[in-house]
Amino acid sequence: MEKKVDFTSKDISSRMVTRITEYLTILYEVSKYEKKINSLDLAIKMDSTAAQVRKDLSTFGEFGVRGRGYDVAKLIEILEHILGIDKKNKLILVGYGKMGSMLVSNSVVLGKGFEIVEVFDKDKEKIGQKTEGLDIIVKGSDEMDEYIRKYNINQAILAVNKEEAQAVAKQLVKSGIKGILNLTAFKIELPREIAVISVDISAKLQELNFWRRHIDINKKGE
Amino acid sequence: MEKKVDFTSKDISSRMVTRITEYLTILYEVSKYEKKINSLDLAIKMDSTAAQVRKDLSTFGEFGVRGRGYDVAKLIEILEHILGIDKKNKLILVGYGKMGSMLVSNSVVLGKGFEIVEVFDKDKEKIGQKTEGLDIIVKGSDEMDEYIRKYNINQAILAVNKEEAQAVAKQLVKSGIKGILNLTAFKIELPREIAVISVDISAKLQELNFWRRHIDINKKGE
DNA sequence: TAGATTGTTAATCGATTAACAATC
DNA sequence: TAGATTGTTAATCGATTAACAATC
């Protein structure tokens, strides 16, 4: 990467970060067929505009070549670097229920750059079990704090029952966790300096249901 | 519900629909402790503003009482009605892999108002299997079209490999499906009149990773 | 009636888009 | 050089917020 990726002083909107992940998804596909892409073609695949694409990408540096477009492989490298997935990021998984065990046995859903290094559950039946897919033995929740500190873990996937979500999240933060992927349908409240991203399939089904029924409505934005 | 819920002529932004699902998540929790809530308290729980809350809710009718606030139970009823989850919505599930079987055996993730009525897979090993959790026998993908038409299904969860996602989605639309919850990390392209909502855990992990590393950056919006 | 809080309009803010000079 | 397409500025558009009259 010759050009520097720099955004330390910039304001970044959460919308743009979401779009960066979408560019990457598309570029992985495009890379199978093309070496180059220009802002318009990428915009069409994004259901967006060429101006938006150029603006987004230029936030982090000058990665295109005037008259030529963008090099797909280089752009992938750059976006992966921006998102910090050009190296392995360690995660712990808390909650080894249906959702948790699906993630462990199906590591493809985590995508590039992430690795579950330990699994915790409070259920005595599950503690000591060897996980399917990874060579990990499920540990008890009481060992969580020690593990996080010892191995300097800073990110966790929260896949417990929603009733426990808030309490467990708080506990994780106390142990030093800085980012939580919340897979429960509970809105957890944590200090501003902790990153929380939620994935709620039931909420997404609700959105889908709304738009399926009202697709005729003037859908603004996006 | 005395007041009419009406939004046939209104422009609705996708952002607002997302917020509606978030209000609902919060109200389910609030309903355990309170009968009433005002726009400011709801806003605080949303990390939003009272004006935003009132504006959002007033889009669909007048549901509050001046000087009093909103009735929690009534608001839940209204939002459920807006999202169309005050009745059961039938879904078929396509793809009975790790993700698909997790959804079937763990129906709580679907939330209120949704029901998987049939499961399809192309894998001969899986066809004929009785699903864990539901009393459903996995059908072959070749029976999909007939089933959709016969039972008038209009919504599907797509949980196949991302390599097949586009082709299967197209096929579903051809059979009459109007809404797809896309659980693959592939951006499917379909006609404008088909509702598609995607849930991509790997993309969300990327966002989380970004914000965890750059939480100091001036995060705008949201 | 006084106090509280909604619903809504107008003002502000931020994000997207159009346009074009820069340059490969 | 001519053509293509970026990076960026200024204009537009849409979404959020402030303010307040309405009203319980």
TrEMBL record, chains A, B:
Which GO BP terms, alphabetically? Answer: negative regulation of DNA-templated transcription; response to redox state
Give the binding site residues for NAD(+). 95-100
Tell me where in or outside the cell this protein is found.
Answer: Cytoplasm
Give an example GO cellular component term for this record.
cytoplasm
Q: Which GO terms describe its molecular function?
A: DNA binding; DNA-binding transcription factor activity
Pfam families xrefs? CoA_binding (PF02629), Put_DNA-bind_N (PF06971)
Q: Which residues form the CoA-binding domain?
A: 84-187
Please give the SUPFAM superfamilies that the UniProt record associates with this protein: NAD(P)-binding Rossmann-fold domains, Winged helix' DNA-binding domain
Q: Which UniProt keywords apply?
A: Cytoplasm, DNA-binding, NAD, Repressor, Transcription, Transcription regulation
InterPro entries from the UniProt entry? CoA-bd, NAD(P)-bd_dom_sf, Rex_DNA-bd_C_dom, Tscrpt_rep_Rex, WH-like_DNA-bd_sf, WH_DNA-bd_sf
Database matches in NCBIfam families: PRK05472.2-3, PRK05472.2-4, PRK05472.2-5
What PANTHER family does UniProt report for this protein, alphabetically? REDOX-SENSING TRANSCRIPTIONAL REPRESSOR REX, REDOX-SENSING TRANSCRIPTIONAL REPRESSOR REX 1
Question: What HAMAP family does the annotation carry?
Answer: Rex (MF_01131)
Which purpose does this protein serve, as stated in its record? Modulates transcription in response to changes in cellular NADH/NAD(+) redox state.
Q: Which family does the UniProt entry place this protein in?
A: Belongs to the transcriptional regulatory Rex family.
| Assembly information from the UniProt record | Homodimer.
What protein name is recorded for this chain? Answer: Redox-sensing transcriptional repressor Rex
